[in-house]
Amino acid sequence: MSQDGYYIRDSTIGGQAAGKGFFSNRDLTGGEPIAIIQRPLMASLESERLKDTCANCYVWTEGSAIGSRLYVKRGITVQMCAGCKRFRYCSKACQKEAWNRGHKHECKNLKPVADKELPKAVLGCMEILVRRKQGLIDDQTWQLLCHLDSHIDDFKANGNYDGIELMAMGTSQFSATQDTFNKDFVAQMYARILSNSMTLVTPTFEPLGILIDALLCHINHSCHPNTYIVMDGPQMQLRALRDIKKDEELFISYVDPTMPYLRRQSELEQRWFFACKCSKCQQGIASQEDDWARKLASLTTHNRELANEEIKRAQDHSVGEPSDEQRLATLQEKTFNSYEEAQQQSDPAEAIRTIEGAIAFCTESNLWLAHHQPLPALRDELIVNMLAVGNYEGAWFECAKRHRHAMPKLYPQIHHPIRVVQTWRMAMLAQYLASTGTEVAVGADMALIAAMLINTISVTSRMSHGPDNAFTKSVQLKFSEVEGELLGRFGSEDAMNAAIQRQVKLLSEMGK
Q: How confident is the model at residue 154, as a pLDDT?
């Protein structure tokens, strides 16, 4: 692991002690790598991903959407471990690597429970306990891991400790480590995983499961982060989101920093048991994410009546006339509820109806701009569901709106990994529409628009993911392919660039 870009010392956030923190040991430029870890200490796949994802290199063999996952080799499949019948591997090499890393010690323990669905945190905790028992986790890493707060007292206070104890009993039994770790220690380790794990993701940020890294899990949180973590299979990279000064503390965001202040605070309190005092949260509702909440003058009579109905429905008795602040908060909660409802719907057509109704309310109410949550999240979900039902043209126009109005505000850095990945998916959709000959708009040349977007990503992906990331390499290959095709079509680079510039304006108009 490279440690060239940081050092560790005591941290103070918002005037309060925040344990140890990571600090830059030199001036860093946005997009620069800070630390590279070849594999987290533990990663555990979601139950549904156990069937289509390699448990060693985490290649996801299913779920490709309109070519957006070109970094996955064609024809790759996963085969079940003949012993435990739970984990799958994409090759003999991956299976051997996992076996030597510790699976040979847990395989026999998992075989008797092959027909049981075990939570990912249980499987992850089992892996850690078995590997430590077998001497496969060194003392320094173990001490770093055990230094992570288990938050046992917090779990007892919120009433969840009984469930943790129950899961820990099963973990101890299934891992056959009762002779090494007592039940209280196993409960602490299980709680430590629940309260410190990060999300295991693909290079394009599809969630696969959870992970624990004894070092990177110590990085402090900020709702205005200056770093982020990107993955390439098991490899983790900590990269600079923006320019960072020497001795400046390094932060990642544990939550979606584009969400409003109160929702961020609520999620951080419930999941990580702290009240955030970062620079953004010290502003309260004065930051960009809460602009909508200062629009009291925009409350129409219809909005007030709608909010009054929602408030009345939620209360058992009248508590007097609500304030406009209460009405705004109620309307925001209503839109977030619609977003969460759409996420839970299994029928894409039904989800689309829910989302379109919520988007219509957001826009007609005049309370939300295109970059105020949950409107961008609703649009993201709408795109996913439109692609699922084959409404590619409709998905394209939603992408164009997101590209014009939301992404520059939510992700101002051109190399922000979410912005890069969303632009890549948009480029692949444009290329697909070009291949079908769909006339999206008068004068629109979708092949040119796709080439323009891919050209942008060929530059920004090197900063967002690094030049050696599988995602970046697939972007470079695609760029070489489309550039060659267009040069052959236009005869010269000048003619091609002139044609592309005409499409830039048209793309902007499609996003209105």
A: 97
